[in-house]
Description:
The structure holds two protein chains of two kinds.
Chain A lengths: L1 H20 L3 H26 L8 H14 L10 H23 L4 H21 L1 H4 L5 E2 L5 E2 L2 E2 L5 H22 L2 H11 L1 H6 L4 H27 L1 E2 L6 H14 L4 H28 L11 H15 L8 H8 L5 H15 L1
Antiparallel strand pairs in A: 1-4, 2-3
Chain B lengths: L1 E12 L2 E12 L3 E5 L6 H8 L7 E6 L2 E2 L5 H7 L1 E3 L12 H8 L8 H6 L2 H20 L15 H13 L5 E5 L7 H16 L3 E5 L3 H7 L2 E6 L2 E6 L1 H6 L1 H8 L7
Parallel strand pairs in B: 3-8, 3-9, 6-7, 7-8
Antiparallel strand pairs in B: 1-2, 1-4, 4-5, 9-10
Amino acid sequence: MTRRHAALGFLGLALVVYPFVDRNNSHVDFLANAGAFILLALGLNIVVGFAGLLDLGYAAFFAIGSYSYAMLASQQFGIHVPFWLMLLIAPVVAALFGLLLGAPTLRLRGDYLAIVTLGFGEIVPQTFLNLSQYTNGPNGISSLDQPSLFGHAFGFSATPYYYVLLGLIALGILAARNLQNSRLGRAWMAIREDELAARHMGINTTATKLAAFALGASFSGLAGVVYAAKLDLVSPDEFGFNVSVLVLSMLVLGGMGNIWGVIVGSFVLSFINSFLLPQSTSLAHAAGFVNVDFTNYRFMLYGVILVTMMLFRPEGLIPSRQRAAEFHEAILDPALAAQEQSEYEGVAR
Amino acid sequence: MALLALDNVTKAFGGLVAVKELTFELDAGGIAAMIGPNGAGKSTVFNLITGIYAPSSGSIDFDGRSLRGLRTNRIAARGIARTFQNIRLFAFMSALDNVMTGRHARMGASMFDSLLHTPRQRAEERRVRERARELLKFVDLERAGASYARNLPYGSQRRLEIARALASDPKLLLLDEPAAGMNPREKDELIALIGRIRDSGVTVFLIEHDMNLVMNVSERVTVLDHGEKIAEGSPDAVRRDERVIEAYLGRADGAA
Lengths: 349, 256
């Protein structure tokens, strides 16, 4: 345990000093963007990993977080809520929309819930696109307020955003871990394992699922604020279905339900997405292959990675104990196996 | 006064009447059993008591108050815990976590307590973990705490389900075929365990097919056939009741 703490401390320290060592702003910029996706993945992990609710429209909450910053901290309406205050407001706004989505739909299960969240994920960016008198439609909202700390504006350097995200991720990890080992976390897992039995434990399954949706959404509200401020622009095409799928792929790759797995998964996919592919493209251009653009192969590469994972390591790179067991532990007890067989037949009938 | 009272309860699924005008009372303390041939409606009665189904007509009172319109989780919080005919543990949670989850209704930690691990939350977690360990010991599973529920042997899973149910300090414990699939030695242990539960002040109401077990542990037996109560009384009286013999074995003269 102490060894683990030492390793974590060392990693934390390395991340804190990193911008001082690597003066290349584009590297720090990449890490900051990856940080926003780590935050998103930590939030989605609460919904999908802990509570077992498949959400295919998670990018909607990211959009809501981003747009709430764009509308409340820019010339758009002449409202200028400070960045730091928005870090408190946006997660609450996103959580409220999480409740709004959750309340009518959480009676649905499995595939049906996934379809409804998919629809929500489509509706939200469309709404921002079509409410053009408030959102400038496809042009989006630009010239957002620059965050500042003690009078120093963040400017166009990625470094301050990097530190903000580092702090938020640290808090996010702490929050996710606390939740996992608590009355609420156990209730989520109980619902994931057996909803009917969970109800017999006195768990209000509706309220518990709503809590997962709201808390999960609040993470992406935070990510949205930082991402929007850093980019200095929001537009509806940044929050499409592909973003929801990207974040979900991060969970699958890293290991659903495991906080560290989820972080590794989102880092790896971000790395491929925003670093490896663009960098190799520019290398290819420099070498004279001007018609090559590896970034076009992004989704093919995700596809290959996901299929490979499903074939060889379906539980993810760093699986939670549950997932590893689910995929690899044989059922040792013949009576249990027989019972499962009969239950399966019961379902088939 | 009766702990549980069913008054003229009927449950129909479309045209199929699963439970018909059932009236019976269960006194606090002691062990009661419900028997009957397959499909007699026994599990439906449990599902009516725990709010999985709402009665088509009639009323169910528990501890002096009606259960009408209450959802399953509210009924659990009132003090009715149960186990299932097909074990329904939280398969990929540890045995200890299963029992701690059973305590859910008696815990006070809010969402914010859970998020922030407030001192109050930590103290509660410690108490609940301690209590869960005691309960594992109570059902002879003290060494299984860290194992996944799924990886325990069948008999242990049955006992773990009982421990999880007891974690909520229920007034009434419903056991749905607790001895199903057990070998004779496990059944003997189960009989002893049910006795210990009764001695701890929990009223036990069980459904069972194993006549030996029913006649051994229960003080009162209700017999159901085709959703109707056909007999009720001490095990000995029920065993000699002609309608019961008929329900189980058919009529002697073959006129049925």
